[in-house]
Amino acid sequence: MAALRIATLLCPPLVPLPPPPEEQVAVLAPRPGEFSWTLLPRNGQRPLYLPARMLLEASSQGGGCDIWSEIAVLETEDARFVAVVRHLLEARGLTAFRHAALCDGPEAVRDFFESHDPVAVMPVEALTGPLPERAVAEEFLAAAGRESGFQRARWRALLGAVFGAPRHEPRPWAASGGLQ
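RE: above sequence
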């Protein structure tokens, strides 16, 4: 299993920053320890745009894999949390999956990550490579099943490195490792 890169930043609260000027349209990344206006893209939904600060980020990148996942936890000025997940697929010529969810507490953040199925949001081509022009052969489906299990195992390893053992029984997709 690839080595995991984990960084945690826990900082005392700082004075909230004012909203940026209207003419500023750039995507702002949160600076460690400071509240800053942050734009978080979400596939299929409007992005979140709110003042937040980074508490934790972790990645499963490494080991020569060309698909990896990144997670982050941000704190908002009103003491809520944002769970952020990205699945990077660009090395396979595909667009990354990005999602962020507002959570009321740390348990809700953990529930969000534990209930997320990385394979469900990936296009089939991310698991198999380019699709054949005609009927899909059994070998092609078997390869997709193997890659699904591998990606789910990497997701569980990432969450385990950050949060420890899962609190609930594994989801049916997590136990089987195959396509559902």
